[in-house]
Amino acid sequence: AQKVTQAQTEISVVEKEDVTLDCVYETRDTTYYLFWYKQPPSGELVFLIRRNSFDEQNEISGRYSWNFQKSTSSFNFTITASQVVDSAVYFCALSAQDSNYQLIWGAGTKLIIKP
Amino acid sequence: DAGVIQSPRHEVTEMGQEVTLRCKPISGHDYLFWYRQTMMRGLELLIYFNNNVPIDDSGMPEDRFSAKMPNASFSTLKIQPSEPRDSAVYFCASRTGTSGLDTQYFGPGTRLTVL
Question: Which of B32, B43, B58, B92 is the best substitution to test chain A (most A C-beta atoms within 10 A)?
């Protein structure tokens, strides 16, 4: 069975703090893909990053960074120097052949950045 | 390039009425997905199409729900008759390719309220 767990339901930090959103996944497939999406208060779902199972290099994009560790089946997302505009619900998702490459979604983590 | 387009953005209707939601995928994308998002159940895949053909409709909750894709640039999701429990945000997404490497891009969603 495939599953994505985002154990943190809600996180609240003060602006400029660093924050890490956790994502743990389960799959039997050896080839799979991991995604992060952002859903701001306006409601749209915005794609942030995609990673495949053969590429464990960490990725950095501005204040955003992602840590992919197959050994712990985790794909964590860190925001450095958080800003109020980062307030949103963040979803982690998994895509694998076992599910016909359909997205298996985590429950989401609501991130609140206080000024 | 235009993203996924959905209409209407908001729909308020009374129980028993027919509701039609519309989606225009990104040009060139051959997969189209309909999702429903509620607080209780999160993001649920309702149905998806490949090259205009429905592939998996196992997520469609009841016979009251139906979806069509008459051509590569248009899809509808219809609820007839609508019920208050259908109130949710309905997202349309599209992607190209046949592997999980390809990213789903989402429309802005339609917020449906059934009174």
Answer: B43
The length of chain B, given as a count of residues:
115
Beta bridge partners of residue B68, listed in sequence order: B76
Kindly indicate the confidence band of residue A99, based on its pLDDT and cuts at 50, 70 and 90. Answer: confident
E-strand stretches of chain B: 5-7, 10-13, 19-24, 31-38, 42-50, 53-56, 65-71, 74-79, 88-95, 105-106, 110-114
Sheet with strand B74-79: strands edge to edge: B5-7, B19-24, B74-79, B65-71
pLDDT average, residue stretch A43-69: 92
- State the residue for tokens 């339901």: A9
Stretch A46-60: mean pLDDT: 90
Spatial separation of the C-alpha atoms in residues A8 and B39, rounded to whole Å? 16
Tell me phi and psi for residue A17, to 5 degrees.
-75, 155
Min distance B52 CA to chain A CA atoms (Å): 17
Let me know: does B89 contact A43? Beta carbons within 8 Å.
yes
Q: Mean pLDDT throughout B80-105? A: 88
Partner-chain contact A43 B109, CB within 8 Å: yes
Measured between beta carbons, the chain B residues lying within 8 angstroms of A31 are 100
